[in-house]
Design goal:
5-stranded antiparallel sheet, Chorismate synthase, AroC fold, alpha+beta, globular, 361 residues
Length: 361
């Protein structure tokens, strides 16, 4: 099982949803970066469960501890150990799933691959695994902010069939995003989204949505030609997240309906040098960043675990009715916002270090 992400800025996550705790090992973070738990905790607070009626009621503070890799508030260049304890564990909620796999969840596939699985909460397939990603991503984000003033902002752009108006990619901020529980900066759309999630929750069902992300002040030259294109790395990062089913960058699928004469991004002179008049490319051309904002969308399916009775089959193939226990999100996208930001930061930080290595050769 691959639990490590990155080439030079490497992150390995560990832990299951109902074990003693979860976390990450960050290897490759440059030395002398100011770092404390206070740099990491805000993003974990945005990801944690129990924030509102829009999320699972599981009660966790998700307080992070830096175990290693720093001294006197500075990184040493050695592996950084990050740990978050699991406090509100209820493995008994999953007793019914020991013999009957949940539809569209990873119970069956993990069992087929390994011959064993963590039956409580899904183990590594649980979204609780993403705590390590978010903690590590906060470190990557600070490195990018200090070295390049990079800003990464994600938001919920749709829930079900409710779409929002896209905000200004240059000015949208996390403060705008966090003005409501659904994390959508469009006030009108956010009300409809929250109403839809409430209806779905009352029906013991779930609903999917889309998270959009913009990365500003991304230096030009990041990414590699052919197999390690920057958008390919971002796509891998986003599609490695639980419940993801789609990724598009820049104009995405809508660009297929445009003509090249309109879709092309003409070059113009800007204060920082050469730039583009439009940005249908999403800040990446030929797999390499061009200095414009990098923006993309990630599609999240409806959470697989619902409290409705479902006709299915047990591991022996016998007909069964499953009403899943446990505490689950009716819609994952509000809590997915900081997770998407974290994975974007990990990709960009790793790409910066790779580019710095090329320039030193």
């Amino acid at each position: 099982m691959s639990n490590t992400f990155g080439t030079l800025f490497r992150v390995a996550t560990f832990g299951e949803s109902h074990c003693k705790g979860v976390g990450a090992i960050v290897d490759g973070c440059p030395p002398r970066l100011e770092l404390a738990e206070a740099d990491i905790q805000p993003q974990l607070d945005r990801r944690r469960p129990g924030q509102s009626d829009m999320t699972t009621p599981r009660s966790e503070t998700d307080s992070v501890t830096i175990l290693s890799g720093t001294e006197n508030g500075l990184t040493l260049g050695t592996p950084i150990g990050l740990f978050v304890p699991n406090k509100d564990q209820r493995p008994g909620d999953y007793s019914k799933m020991s013999t009957t796999p949940r539809p569209s969840h990873a119970d069956y596939t993990y069992q087929m691959k390994y011959g064993i699985r963590a039956s409580s909460g899904g183990g590594r397939s649980s979204a609780r695994e993403t705590i390590g990603r978010v903690a590590a991503g906060a470190i990557a984000e600070k490195y990018l902010r200090v070295t390049h003033q990079t800003e990464i902002v994600a938001w919920v752009s749709s829930v079900g069939d409710v779409d929002s108006v896209q905000p200004d990619l240059i000015t949208v901020s996390r403060a705008n995003v966090d003005t409501n529980m659904i994390r959508c900066p469009d006030p009108k759309a956010s009300k409809h989204m929250m109403q839809l999630v409430a209806e779905v929750k009352d029906a013991h069902d779930s609903i999917g949505g889309v998270v959009t992300c913009v990365c500003r002040n991304v230096p030009a030259g990041l990414g590699e030609p052919v197999f390690s294109k920057l958008e390919a790395k971002l796509g891998q990062a986003m599609l490695s997240l639980p419940a993801t089913k789609g990724f598009e960058i820049g104009s995405g699928f809508a660009g297929t309906r445009m003509r090249g004469s309109r879709h092309n991004d003409p070059f113009i002179k800007k204060s920082r040098g050469l730039g583009t008049k439009t940005n249908f490319s999403g800040g990446i051309q030929g797999g390499i960043s061009n200095g414009e904002p990098v923006y993309f969308k990630v599609a999240f399916k409806p959470p697989a675990t619902i409290s409705q009775s479902q006709q299915t089959a047990d591991f022996e193939g016998n007909s069964a009715i499953l009403e899943a226990g446990g505490r689950h999100d009716p819609c994952v996208v509000p809590r997915a916002v900081p997770i998407v930001e974290a994975m974007a930061a990990l990709v960009l930080a790793d790409s910066v270090l790779c580019q710095n290595a090329i320039r030193r050769e």
